[in-house]
Amino acid sequence: MTKSARIITVGAEILLGNVIDRNATLIAKSMARLGIETRRTVIVGSSKEELKKAITSSFSEEDITVICGGLGPEKQDVTREAVSEVFNLPLEKNEAAANKIDEFLSKRGTRTKNSDLKQAYFPRGSVICENDIGTAHGFYIKASNGHYLFALPGKPTECSNMTNKISSDFTNRVNNYIVSKTVNMINITEAKIVHALGELTFPEQCSVVCSGDRGSAGVTVTVEADNKQNAELCFNRAYDILKASRIGGYIYGVDEKPEKSVVRHLRERGLTLSTAESCTGGLIAKLITDCPGSSEVFPGGIISYSNRIKSEFLDVKTTTLEKHGAVSHQTAMQMADGARYRFSTDFAISATGIAGPKGATKDKPVGLVYFAISQKNHDTEIYKRIFTGDREAVRRQSADFILKQLLLKLIDND
């Protein structure tokens, strides 16, 4: 039976619209990987009574409650107090946590205050989750009816770090072992995937559904078995069925974003890549360098926002800029060629366009982006796309598009 979860995010700043709640998305994805269905997300302010109501409601309707935020040293941080009162568990000081807080602050030249030590108190019987990069330690409790409640810090980096810890620990405590992985595909629509899945038969323990992330379609396979080995074996059987089907040729990885797959292919073949970016402002390089091992294949890139930088550092001809403009296939081609020459790489990719909201002309609308892939001993390939959305959306779609085009080229050359 699928377990259910509810995520409660604490923070008046989120209700005011000053901060985007990215933690809930992170936690929901983590729950999904464990085969746990997040049925509802709730945001509450700094009211302890409102938080208690949210906890009580979740406790009566779901299997798991995850509270994010409200574990800091300030008066408005009331998560531990709310949990203590809902479950009638007195708060008790944990000396090990107090020492960790003192040590953490001392290393940063800060004296520990009484308010800081508030973070060392936990409801009786809690399992404490140490915070390696902050002072707000998390905790979880298991109620008499088997309901789990997790409390995590609200800072995104700390929440992400602790979510990984808690996910692993929770996996070891559930009755059955759950494996949930996404089989990534490229250059295929969700409609084609759904149609193909209807023709396939998978093991009974498998849940196989079409999924999407950042505009890419794929298939999420969730398996529940009595142990890890059987779960992995069942997933492998499902993967083999997908690979042998008519959509198998579109598979490029498992739990792997395009940039990670690009880096993996480059490393496996001993190839290198550089970038030349204008409208994307370094986003392509960021995505690449987010991947472990990218230093082996990516020596660097150039953000050539101005025409002067395009000319001086990427050898884009002045006549090209004057005749065709910075947003043109000619400029994109020379940017990519220039980057490959400057960094002496096997590949270089470029992007130049109008991310908006200003800068459009009659012939060049907002969202217009030109791309190029320059490859040693090959003709440079040019791409043109017009994306919709705001400035951030155009940049994100642009980075995704050119990384996927490079990935297709790498896959075709395997």
* Low-pLDDT windows of residues: none
Q: Give the proportion of residues in helices.
A: 25-40%
Overall number of strands: 17
Give the DSSP E fraction (strand runs of 2 or more residues). Answer: 15-25%
Largest sheet: 6 strands, mixed
Walkthrough of the structure:
This protein is of the alpha/beta class and 414 residues long. The protein has helices at 12-15, 23-33, 48-61, 79-86, 95-107, 156-171, 190-197, 228-244, 258-269, 283-289, 307-314, 318-324, 329-343, 391-412, and strands spanning 4-10, 37-44, 64-68, 91-93, 121-123, 127-129, 138-142, 148-152, 177-185, 206-213, 216-225, 251-254, 273-277, 300-303, 347-353, 368-375, 381-386. Strand 13, helix 10 (283-289) and strand 14 (300-303) form a beta-alpha-beta unit. Helix 2 (23-33) runs parallel beside helix 6 (156-171), helix 3 packs across helix 4 (79-86) and helix 9 packs parallel to helix 14. The longest helix has 22 residues, at 391-412. 40% of the residues are buried.
